[in-house]
Automatic annotation (TrEMBL):
Protein name, entry field: Permease component of an ABC superfamily amino acid transporter
Positions in coiled-coil regions: none
ABC transmembrane type-1 domain location: 23-211
TM region(s), chain numbering: 20-49, 61-82, 94-115, 136-158, 192-211
PROSITE patterns reported in the protein's UniProt record: ABC_TM1
Protein transport is among the record's keywords: no
Keyword Acyltransferase set for record: no
Location within or outside the cell: Cell inner membrane; Cell membrane
Topological category with respect to the lipid bilayer: Multi-pass membrane protein
Keywords noted in UniProt: Amino-acid transport, Cell inner membrane, Cell membrane, Membrane, Transmembrane, Transmembrane helix, Transport
Family of this protein: Belongs to the binding-protein-dependent transport system permease family. HisMQ subfamily.
Superkingdom of source: Bacteria
Gene Ontology terms: cellular component: ATP-binding cassette (ABC) transporter complex
Length: 221
């Protein structure tokens, strides 16, 4: 092993406790924003199907804004902009809020595509039998939409993991932030960022494995 590699190895071991915490911070953030983004996406889809044209237009504007705006811009607005209005949140809270609003817009768009492929006669039949709009959505629309949207929704979780690296820009101590500290200390940028990529690939592979299992289970139903 060369002196350069040996030095990097020792630096890595010295920083490992913080890097380990960074990995768990990344996992925590990914899980939270994936769940909150999914739940809000379900709500956004429900509102987008409203017969109230004004509400539907507002929901469409919401989706267009958050899909069309770079995520980093949204996070910066929340982190640097809100304090000027008297609202202050922690880096974690800012990141969760920004990501949730963004992810929900994408998830709602995925599920709306699936909804457009449904046989609408079953919805008309349910309405004729006295089902409320919420019951039709909960018992008929949502289960079918989720089944069809599984590949897109699980791919979104992988995107959430990768995008979580943006959180370091607002001082959230996730994996990329910890690896930045390692690179700043030893100036071994190629080795450090290559290793960072490996960590993300390993975590994404775990998500991919579980996603494929979910897809197989759904297709078997």
């Amino acid at each position: 092993m060369s002196d350069s590699m040996l030095s990097f190895y020792h630096d890595f071991l010295d920083q490992w406790p913080l890097i380990y915490l960074g990995i768990w911070a990344t996992i925590k953030l990914t899980v939270v924003i994936s769940v909150t983004g999914f739940l809000l996406g379900v709500v956004v889809l429900y509102l987008s199907l409203s017969k109230n044209s004004r509400l539907a237009r507002w929901v469409e504007a919401y989706k267009s804004f958050f899909i069309g705006t770079p995520l980093i811009c949204i996070i910066y607005i929340l982190y640097y902009g809100l304090p000027t209005l008297g609202f202050r949140m922690s880096p974690f809270e800012v990141t969760v809020l920004g990501f949730t609003l963004n992810i929900a817009a994408y998830n709602a768009a995925y599920m709306l595509t699936a909804y457009n492929g449904l046989d609408k006669t079953q919805l008309e039949a349910a309405s004729a039998q006295g089902f409320s709009r919420l019951q039709i959505y909960s018992y008929i629309i949502l289960p079918q939409v989720l089944r069809t949207s599984v590949p897109a929704l699980t791919n979104q979780v992988i995107h959430n993991l990768k995008d979580s690296s943006l959180a370091f820009l607002v001082q959230y101590p996730e994996l990329f932030a910890r690896m930045q500290e390692l690179a700043a200390g030893n100036f071994e940028f190629f080795k450090t960022y290559s290793l960072t990529a490996v960590f993300y690939i390993l975590m994404a592979s775990v998500i991919y494995f579980f996603a494929k299992n979910i897809e197989r289970r759904v297709q078997a139903v």
